[in-house]
User: Fold these one by one.
Assistant:
Number 1:
Amino acid sequence: MLSVALGKVNSSVVFRLGVLGAMATDLFAARIEAHELKPKHVGLMVVLDAGRASSQLEIAGVMGVAPSLVVALADRLQKLGAIERVRDPADRRRQVLTLTEHGRELLAVCEELAQSADAEFAADLTAAESAVLTGLLDRLAARQGLPSASNDPK
Amino acid sequence: MLSVALGKVNSSVVFRLGVLGAMATDLFAARIEAHELKPKHVGLMVVLDAGRASSQLEIAGVMGVAPSLVVALADRLQKLGAIERVRDPADRRRQVLTLTEHGRELLAVCEELAQSADAEFAADLTAAESAVLTGLLDRLAARQGLPSASNDPK
DNA sequence: TCAAATCATTCAATGCATGAATGATTCGCA
DNA sequence: TGCGAATCATTCATGCATTGAATGATTTGA
């Protein structure tokens, strides 16, 4: 046991995840910037793609943000032609958001950018380690009620 | 291989790390709030404790933030009595920051709070899995030039 | 010795996100 | 059937973290 030194804060999952998460987000943000997207726009598209929510209020719940923020995010995505906004005929208070074909293409582009960012960010990990990390993060995500990559939504 | 469904964005390390990191930070922030601290204040204390930097400009470099932000963070910590600010006699432009005894105690309290937050956040992971996760995050952190828990600073 | 560089600090500006207020629609109940 | 309360989306003003530019003090190098 050679690792001495630093206090527990620094080896805490919560603390380190926070610091690295901010860096990861910055890196990803830089990659998608050219498409006029921020990470939360991609997050919204992921939620739609996962079929986890359709009305804006539900989306706000899944994303853990204020409903008014969803309005702004959806405005941008709609302007880009990535989503459609349709009043629910059964309840005309609700706005139902769906990915357009162009939205799916845009999401696919973001997927590639995310993978290229992964290659840079996790360059020190072997493929096996990377898979372990993804699996563990997925378990944590599932517990937080996020769309999980190992849940088939259909 | 049952995991079908979602696109690669959602299983990307960078993307998922970002989302979970934000949640982790929120959780940790809530725990330390009563001590008038934000995560970045703790981050600054960790840097000092690790002996990674002493002048404010160095600290800004390690933390990846603007020097003017370090001023504000240090102001708060000094007001709380957690750090001392002393002009370097050899170069009186530099402010040398050091943890006070109270600062070390405060950091210890944050350590406990971080661990309790860990217990909640990673409740689904076994102790072994948690250790693996910490190790992998540590590898990533080291690559990003952060104070690593497995680096003895002395 | 003096001009350029360096460090800390202040200050104004930016951008993300929130909560309260508003309007439209639906629901529950008398 | 009708009316008040609840629900959803939207707008708006506000708060807060962070940045970059401007300023002042000090050091460095020529």
Number 2:
Amino acid sequence: MDNLLTRKLEIFAPLPDADRRLLDHTVRMARLVDGRADLIREGDDPLHVRLILEGFACRYKLLPDGRRQIMAFLVPGDFCDLHIFILRTMDHNIGTLSPCRVVDIPRTRILEMTERPALARALWWCSLVDEATLREWLVNIGARSAEQRIAHLLCELLMRLETVGLASNGSYDLPITQAEIADTMALSTIHVNRVLQRLRAENLITFKNGALVIPDVPRLKAFSGFNPNYLHLTERNGSKEPRR
Amino acid sequence: MDNLLTRKLEIFAPLPDADRRLLDHTVRMARLVDGRADLIREGDDPLHVRLILEGFACRYKLLPDGRRQIMAFLVPGDFCDLHIFILRTMDHNIGTLSPCRVVDIPRTRILEMTERPALARALWWCSLVDEATLREWLVNIGARSAEQRIAHLLCELLMRLETVGLASNGSYDLPITQAEIADTMALSTIHVNRVLQRLRAENLITFKNGALVIPDVPRLKAFSGFNPNYLHLTERNGSKEPRR
DNA sequence: CGTAAAATTGATCTGTCTCAACGTGGGTGG
DNA sequence: CCACCCACGTTGAGACAGATCAATTTTACG
């Protein structure tokens, strides 16, 4: 069975066996982290790159008045800080939402990876998809109603978790509180509560013992205006070199 | 005198003379584009990478109901679509705001550039700063008041334009309409108008024959909660290889 | 000059926030 | 094993930032 990192990177393109073996080796040394713990703080100059293997984490910034804005969800298979090779100093925080299993990948290992063309391109793909996701989140917060906004987030998480085998039949574990959804969607906790109630009343979502269930996925996607193109899950590039 | 692209890329690190010559050559063939014209549309598979040399452009997405959300401003020195090497299909549109001078850089030229270590890192830096800017915009739209939001945008543009020599003494040309600011900041045009009036009444900004003037830059930065760390303008990396 | 785009003004409406409670379930210590 | 407790979810009422609708004025420009 493929490890989670291999599975994630092969969404973009198949990898040579040697690369897959390197990834197997990379993923071996994981550690456990509590829920609600900071992995990296703004101002840090991290020495290695973190990868989430289990659990949910997030990127966030704190404002002077103590509010926080969550800018990204990190789910298993996601890198926390690939950019530290270029941008030494973190301009935001990364914290866990639930308890997580995390690997610390040494810089030398990442350099080794970037020397292999297929892996280098797969890492680049990760970084560009993160950026595309950020653009979609900006649209989400800027232009959609609270109901659509939250529905859109739930659709995105469904697709992302499906690609790493953590969701199926429109259902997945969502170990986060309404307050955390509020910090993500730029809404008050109270409003998130009311919106979730309405989504449940419309039977767009339900909760079955802790897990989110989306009874009719196409309906929720249509309701939220979800278009998965920004996740770039289908543009496989099997060649060893960029086209042309 | 350095060309604009060299100037922009050397914000990150000095470039070897050979690289600078390559950039001089790259920037030679520019073309003019009208204001309010699309450079690239969602769904396109662009053949070359576009670079803005003069004028303002933006990334945007259109919603089913016709509204648009602008997700980034592109100013002289900014690349439109470096990511097409990996993500073939555009997931958003790029359009000019004012008349622009644009270079179309062939894919082969970009490949040539990425084979030179200093240039490759400079291009990576551009892409990561774009991503960091997107995160800050998410905070801006999600967590700040309309007044702070617009003030923050004006502070960011001041800094970005200063780095390419297009702003000085807290003043720069801002060839965009209030409706465009509204599409950017997720506000109505009318509210943007009122907010700008209030900012002028507070003497936080003024307009002198078409140009924006910020009489007291530190005051506007403080007012908007502007922290330039996300632009990563000061972490120069002069070495030929990544540290460690 | 005439015209269209942009900026401005006023009045009203509404989605979301804030404040202030209250309910509830799972974990812990006595 | 029960009682307490704290985090989380829920409810109601009132306030407000910003949207919407409908004109009117100003500006840029052919």
